[in-house]
Amino acid sequence: EVGILAKSYIDQGRLIPDDIMTRLVLSELKGLDQYNWLLDGFPRTVAQAEALDKECQIDTVIDLDVPFETIKCRLTARWIHPASGRVYNLEFSPPKMEGIDDITGEPLVQRDDDKPETVTKRLQAYDAQTKPVLEYYREKGLLKSFSGTETNKIWPHIYAFLQTKLPDVSQKDAATPR
Question: Record's family (predicted)?
């Protein structure tokens, strides 16, 4: 039910409120204290960061400094096949026929949260709310920033940095999302 509530905010182009987001994330982190883990997009507010700090020891915060327009182009170019979940990107992984799933021939759709106006609203809200979070972690000496527009150019620098934090993580393990 909390996930359905969260989706309603996303579909409106709004960010999920702190209390809902914090409950979702912290419940997932319970029992993971013996593992290394990485959060993507959380915390996005100082209140979330403070709640996370009360529950977990944070070692490093990575900031991917990617231009607004790059992110907007990638997200608004994303189309999906609803039945299978296959994802296409018109820029770098387009379907063979525009608007049609390669395997079934069924129409592709754009998720509400990938529509240009929704993406713009979400990115503006995210930017305004996360600047204080970056400063919060910068002051704690935990923030490391990486700038760029292409994953294959940024990733080697991130991987080298993570090796200093987690030297026992192999390239294969690092490439496998959990």
Answer: Belongs to the adenylate kinase family.
**Which of 39, 32, 29, 28 has the alpha carbon at shortest distance from 3?**
28
Report pTM: 0.69
Q: What are 129-143's pLDDT values in tens digits?
A: 889 999 999 999 999
| Amino acid in position 121 | K
Tell me whether the omega of the peptide bond preceding residue 43 falls within 30 degrees of 0, making it cis.
yes
Q: Which tokens in the block code for residue 145?
A: 């920033």
Q: Which two tokens stand for residue 122?
A: 């979400």
Do 65 and 144 contact (CB within 8 A), yes or no? no
Beta bridge partners of 80: 87, 109
Among 157, 118, 160, 109, residue whose Cα is nearest residue 9: 118
Strand partners, 87: 80
